[in-house]
Amino acid sequence: MSPAGVIAADFPGGMRRSDSHEVSQLNELKIDAGALVVGAHYALAGNIVMVEQMPIFGGYAGGLEETAIIDVATTINSFVMLQATWHLDGPIHVRWGVTTAREALAVAGHAARAVEKHTRFILGNQYYTLAGPCTVMCLLETAAQAITDTVSGREILSGVAAAKGVLTDRFSPMEARMMAEAARAAAGMPVAAANVLLDRLVAGYEKGYKTAPGGKTFSQCYDVKTLTPTAEYLAVYEEAVGVLRGLGLTYWDK
Amino acid sequence: MKTIGKRVTVFDVYDRAKTGPKVAENDWDCKIVPQTATALKQKYGIKIDKTRIIPEDEDLIDNLWAAGLEMLETTGVYCIDTGRVIRYGRDEILQAVTGAPDSFIYGEGREAITVVPRAYSAAEAPLIQGGPTGSPCSEDLFLPIHQAYAQEPLVDAIVDGVLQTVMGKDPVPGSPWEIMAVRSEALFVRDAQCRAGRSGMGL
Hints:
The structure holds 2 protein chains of 2 kinds.
Chain A: H1 3-8, E1 20-24, E2 30-31, H2 33-45, E3 48-52, E4 56-57, H3 64-81, E5 86-89, E6 92-93, H4 102-118, E7 123-128, H5 136-151, E8 156-161, H6 173-186, H7 191-206, H8 218-221, E9 222-223, E10 228-229, H9 231-246
Parallel strand pairs in A: 1-3, 3-5, 4-6, 5-7, 7-8
Antiparallel strand pairs in A: 9-10
Helix pairs in contact in A: 3-4, 4-5, 5-6, 5-7, 5-9
Chain B: H1 10-19, H2 25-43, H3 58-75, E1 77-79, E2 84-86, H4 90-99, E3 104-106, E4 113-115, E5 127-130, E6 136-137, H5 142-151, E7 157-158, E8 162-163, H6 176-195
Parallel strand pairs in B: 5-7, 6-8
Antiparallel strand pairs in B: 1-2, 3-4
Helix pairs in contact in B: 2-3, 5-6
């Protein structure tokens, strides 16, 4: 989006100062002048500023540790360069293009804990799953990231862009519901217990990357008049909850 | 009493982007960034076990923080438009760390939420920003899709999708249709929030 396009969203009836105004850094540790133009507008308007960046595991950064180091540096940079109110992360796997792969979760989990321990920054993470809506895999990917983000100390979960966020209308609020419920299920869980659960949860879906189901579109997942999920999706959701229950999460039993 | 330093501003950053050291972008991507990250990984002895997705070792957590801080101080940030590096002093970085906001109010009225730092061990769950997260939305379904998210009881704020077309036109960046699309997206989301009875909800 051009700087003019971004700035055009601020108008009476449109974006308010109390909304999160996005500006993005580039991979890795790069910026374009347009982002500085947008940042200048946000600073002078007194807006809430959300600075986004998605470090790439397996990209220029390289391996797991290098990507985590760059993720921490990038997070700090949001507050130095663009006077962020909060940072929206999104470590992504170069091969799969998702934030829910084991390596992407490990980068996110480590970077968040490192920053959480040493600052009072407000941190978010964004969700890109491989599988599409109305599939158990998509919901389990979402749950894995929500558990990671919650137990590593993030404040805001943002999503879900299902099926990598590239296909028209291929998402639904049911994925956001899982993001929220899995976060509630994990909040307060000891880290060691969360790691055992996550290792099993991720192992359960990472074998299926090459055959990940594309899922359904919004209008196939919801009644578009009543805006309610289909019986089929509710059943899929219950199946995913059953898997999470089997891994020891008790949230749905209360 | 120690004088409080001036925080770096986006205007300072722009000036540095015009005067910083000149570097070829390929060298930045393929040498400076990966080599510095690898050197810091070795210096701080950082090793991640990917079966433990969240770190349990406090030394690892501290060393990762120190390495990330040193990474930003050592490399700075590359401006692709000027081909120059924006550098910060350590004191400037630390000034931003300590001076960063530690709360904000997201949304308005009864939907306003005060966002504050939460510890990794907190029993309170994070805030939920629900939505298509920049995924493409068809023009005819943009409003109902966002209303459906706003109606989800556990969704606190909306992260919207992008209109694939506006009035049937491709909203190419830098074109008048982009402006039409951006303003339409904001209006549609506000309408969706109102229809869900949550007009003060953040976006």
